[in-house]
Amino acid sequence: MNYQDPASINPRILDHLTDAVLLFDQGCRLVYINLAGEMLFAVSARQAMGARAKDLFGPSDRTMESDFKRALTKSESLTKRNLAFGAPAHPITVNLTIVPIQEKDTDRAEAVLVQIEQVDRHLRISMEEQILAQQNAARMLLRGLAHEIKNPLGGIRGSAQLLQRELASEELREYTQIIMDESDRLQSLVDRMLGPNKPLLLEPINIHRVLERVRQLVQVEAPAGVSIERDYDPSIPLVNGDGDLLIQAILNIVRNAAQAVGARGRILIRTRIHRQVTIGNKRNRLVVKIDVEDDGPGIPDALMGQIFYPMVTGRAEGTGLGLSIAQSLINQHGGLIECGSEPGHTVFSIFLPLEMGHD
Hints:
The protein is α+β, with helices and mostly antiparallel strands. It has 3 domains: about 110 residues, 2-Layer Sandwich (Beta-Lactamase); about 70 residues; about 150 residues, 2-Layer Sandwich (Heat Shock Protein 90), CATH 3.30.565. Helices cover about 45% and strands about 25% of the residues. The chain is built from 11 helices and 12 strands. The chain is elongated, with a radius of gyration of 27 Å. The two termini are about 35 Å apart.
């Protein structure tokens, strides 16, 4: 096997793996990396090719090159479990297996194959499934409640309207008007809880135009001390989606961030391409990930598992509908919203498939 020729590894097969696969030569220099590896190290194959192992892994494990050399000289495999990997602020947990590659008819290892399994990826998939299940359950519950509320509500309003016509006293007619106004308010609240009920009008859209529209709207509303910064990947292709509904969903999230930071703070909107991402039970070859970060006080731990439920809010003046509606709209696009929060740093991550509606 010519280990320095990526074609000999059949990269088309390896690129469909969710585990990162890397190949290093005897000098501990990278000669192959699959798509999952590119995503894990946040680097393209072209940029990474020829990089030393110690430079690629950085501070994650300073003994990596010595482990490679031991595998080469002794032709022994080595597994490292629960290794903290990535940036210190956002580490991930991986299992790493080092396998020496031997030439035919010899006992001498000529290369090292490294397989990296992201352990917490399984936890993430489980959390995604839980979020989707919660959203579906909440949607079914709301539809049932809406049906039970709207029917008597319509009868109450209609009766008040008929009674108003029969009353001669202006003072008494004011009471019937209050009944009608409150009935209309409850009707509006129920409609908002259900969210938009129209079919998606899918078309190719530039996601950055959507984000810029949202940024402009929130920047006008926010105090002067709030800055909204952008970090866009210009290579992201068009997204197949409903522009108006995507604006509504993302606007709810960015507005929440602006309210969280108060009179002074920083919000960052970032876009990146991710490959081979599983959302629910569907694997997507390409997705766009939109991060909305803020440096506000964070979300209380008691609310973290419930923030996408309707009527759940951490603000006294909030309705608790914004995030629920946003999640529902993104779900309709085949995507998902996730959240991570700690004091001073909250991130809402929106995942949208780039090939929705295509086979």
